[in-house]
Design goal:
Elements (H helix, E strand, L loop, with lengths): L8 E7 L2 E9 L4 E3 L2 E2 H4 L4 H7 L1 H6 L5 E8 L3 H19 L4 H7 L29
Parallel strand pairs: 3-5
Antiparallel strand pairs: 1-2, 2-5, 3-4
Pfam families: Ribosomal_S9 (PF00380)
Family: Belongs to the universal ribosomal protein uS9 family.
GO cellular component, one term: ribosome
Length: 134
């Protein structure tokens, strides 16, 4: 099997309208999102911070990689899910043997749910005017 000689491992993740591009480099576990530290970008939200590092924690490599992420589009929740998938895909570039546990945990699968479009004659995607019997 060919060894990876690139200075970093790359992964792309998507969720709703958010797209995240993650780069894993050898380091001490520092996470950077769009040039800011993860805690600054996510306003110190402990739940979202923990969610981002879930793929690394699952394979026990939280302190082995520095993560640099560029994320665009969507809201915070969609961005966090996109980042999670991007990190999981980047892990499998250098260590294909870790794909199975990440896939079993659901980090490799893209969530296909998108916002439903508004239809004409309705207020929103499904909301209608109130029915008047008379």
């Amino acid at each position: 099997m060919a060894m990876n000689t690139a200075p970093y491992d790359y992964g792309l993740g998507r969720r709703k309208s958010a797209t995240a591009r993650a780069r894993l480099t050898a380091g001490k576990g520092k996470v950077t999102i769009n040039g800011k530290s993860a805690s600054d970008y996510l306003s110190d939200n402990k739940t979202l911070l923990a969610e981002i590092t879930d793929p690394l924690a699952l394979v026990g490599k939280q302190k082995e990689f520095d993560v640099s992420v560029l994320v665009k589009g969507g809201g915070l929740s969609g961005q966090v899910d996109a980042i999670k998938q991007a990190i999981a895909k980047a892990i499998t570039v250098s260590a294909p043997d870790l794909r199975a546990p990440l896939k079993k945990a659901g980090f490799m699968k893209r969530d296909p749910r998108e916002k439903e479009r508004k239809k004409y004659g309705l207020r929103s995607a499904r909301k209608r005017e109130q029915y008047s019997k008379r």
